[in-house]
Design a protein that fits this description.
This protein has about 500 residues and is an alpha+beta fold. It has helices spanning about 5-20, 55-65, 85-90, 105-110, 120-135, 140-145, 145-160, 170-190, 195-215, 220, 225-230, 235-265, 275-285, 295-330, 330-345, 360-370, 405-410, 455-470, and strands spanning about 65-70, 75-80, 170, 380, 385-390, 390-395, 400, 475, 490, 495, 500-505. The strands form four sheets. It has a four-stranded mixed sheet. The protein has a three-stranded antiparallel sheet with strand order 3-11-8. A two-stranded antiparallel ribbon has the order 5-6. Pfam families: p450 (PF00067).
Length: about 500
């Protein structure tokens, strides 16, 4: 076959490009880099991770070890898959691993000025301080107790209307999404946060699009010259549309709060919502503007979006997984129901006063978070300097992924690691915010500087919802269907149950 000189030259150029693109950099003399499984030319291991990367990375760690170096497109990425590695990332060398890589979707959707996705720096420190001291303190979380209890009662009412007398299946997934959206809407925007029934449905759709986009991995993040693929797939247009709608909503909310503050300043600090509190911080920053980071409207909007993403997606995902696991484990369901019903006694509903008595319920939630970690790879970190991880050299500006899902299923540290066994947590001190950073075998909320500050907000919301559903109803799979629920996963901002959870709710009364 004749080959033209131009074709031959093109072939040589292409082979040379592939060779240099896939060639490993030297290990800086004596410094030992982590083992690096080979990937594809130019794209590295990016297209080989599959639809459920946490499972693929777990299988790779079993072969290559608890610390690996992968090239995802042009991005060197270190993967930590053991409790010891997680402890070094989130405690021993926490500061070195404390930054975040830039993400195109986060920059577009949360202004590049939020707390969860922001790189380490003064803005991030100020944002976290505001969240910890003003929004997510124990006192502030307690102030939303009435909202949580009202939303739980409303959810129970919706179950009764959807399945009168236990006839017909209930869409449990939709009910739990509505519950979590209701709580965070009221916490962020006030009791008017739902904007009426129609507004609530539109808000739910808007935030569903927002969370879907925020969990989308774009080509441009890893292979900049392929960013045009994101535009071709419609991601850029959808992100621009969603961002504009969200920004308009938040502008209206902030303007409305400012108007109400001018009309009559609220006297009862305990009942103020997140926007009220952040406007106070904003006013205080204006008065003391000599240096420091200004906490302006963009920062307020970014933190509101952070709280929505964290408090809705992961909370509802965990609650759906908990109900699914209990359906497949009727003995455990009966045990937790007996505990709840004994604690409530002759009462007509579960309140937060009952929660401290529900030790087995807490075990169920912890076991769900272990077995079905909602953010299995947490949020990626980025090293700010050259550092070490289990004796391996990790260069500055490396992306770092902690596979919390693999760590929570490690058979070397967990007995019956693949099974749902709530009793494994029975001996724990269940008052310690779910061991945030105390046990690195179990890090569903991360740890260290980049650990989730909203654990204290999420936990009572999960406990109250699950206790309410299990107290008022006996739950079954629909008749004529499978005898066991399929537990297939769907990847997104969090990893959720793939199928819609449809269950029959049979009313129970003392």
């Amino acid at each position: 076959m004749d080959v033209s000189p131009f074709a031959a030259l093109l072939l040589v150029a292409l082979v040379s490009l592939l060779f240099f693109a896939t060639r490993r950099k030297p290990s800086d003399g004596w410094r030992r880099l982590p083992p690096a499984p080979p990937g594809l030319p130019l794209l590295g291991y990016l297209p080989l991770l599959g639809p459920l990367p946490h499972r693929k990375l777990q299988a790779m760690a079993a072969k290559h070890g608890p610390v690996m170096l992968l090239r995802l497109g042009r991005v060197p990425t270190v993967v930590a898959s053991s409790a010891a590695a997680a402890q070094e990332v989130m405690k021993t060398h926490d500061l070195a691993f404390a930054s975040r890589p830039r993400a195109r979707m986060a920059d577009r959707l949360v202004y590049g000025r939020d707390m969860a996705f922001a790189p380490y720096g003064e803005h991030w420190r100020q944002s976290r301080r505001v969240c910890v001291l003003h929004l997510l303190s124990y006192r502030r979380v307690r102030s939303f107790r009435h909202a949580r209890e009202q939303e739980a009662a409303a959810m129970v009412g919706r179950v009764r209307r959807a399945s009168p007398g236990g006839r017909g299946a209930v869409n449990v997934t939709a009910l739990i999404i509505s519950y979590t959206n209701g709580i965070i809407s009221r916490a962020a925007f006030g009791d008017e946060g739902r904007f009426g029934v129609d507004g609530g449905e539109k808000l739910t759709k808007l935030f569903a699009d927002f969370e879907e986009l925020l969990g989308t991995v774009t080509f441009g993040d890893f292979v900049p010259w392929l960013a045009w693929v994101d535009a071709l797939m419609g991601l850029d247009a959808k992100a621009a549309r969603t961002s504009a709608q969200m920004d308009a909503l938040l502008e209206r909310v902030i303007a409305d709060h400012r108007q109400r503050r001018r009309d009559s300043r609220r006297e009862h600090d305990g009942h103020r919502d997140f926007v009220d509190v952040m406007l106070d911080v904003n006013d205080e920053a204006d008065k003391n503007a000599a240096g420091g980071v200004m906490f302006d409207d963009v920062a307020i909007k970014a933190i509101v979006l952070d709280t929505f993403a964290a408090a809705t997606d992961t909370t509802y995902t965990s609650l759906v997984w908990a109900m699914a696991e209990l359906i497949n484990h009727p003995r455990e369901m009966r045990r937790v129901q007996d505990e709840i019903r004994a604690a409530v006694g002759d009462g007509d509903r579960v309140t937060e006063d009952h929660l401290p008595k529900l030790r087995y319920l807490k075990c169920v939630i912890k076991e769900t978070l272990r077995l079905r970690t909602p953010l299995p790879l947490l949020l990626p970190r980025e090293t700010m300097e050259d550092t070490q991880l289990l004796g391996y050299h990790v260069p500055a500006r490396s992306r770092v992924i902690v596979n919390a899902w693999a760590i929570a299923r490690d058979p070397a540290t967990w007995d019956r690691a693949e099974e749902f066994v709530p009793e494994r947590f029975a001996g724990d001190d269940l008052t310690t915010d779910y061991l945030l950073g105390q046990d690195f075998r179990f890090v569903p909320f991360g740890a260290g500087r980049r650990g989730c500050p909203g654990v204290g907000f999420a936990v009572p919301s999960m406990e109250l919802a699950l206790a309410s559903l299990l107290y008022h109803f006996d739950w079954e799979l629909p008749a004529g269907g499978p005898s066991k629920l399929e537990m297939d996963e769907l990847n997104g901002l969090s990893v959720r149950l793939k199928a819609t959870l449809l269950l029959v709710a049979k009313p129970w009364s003392p």
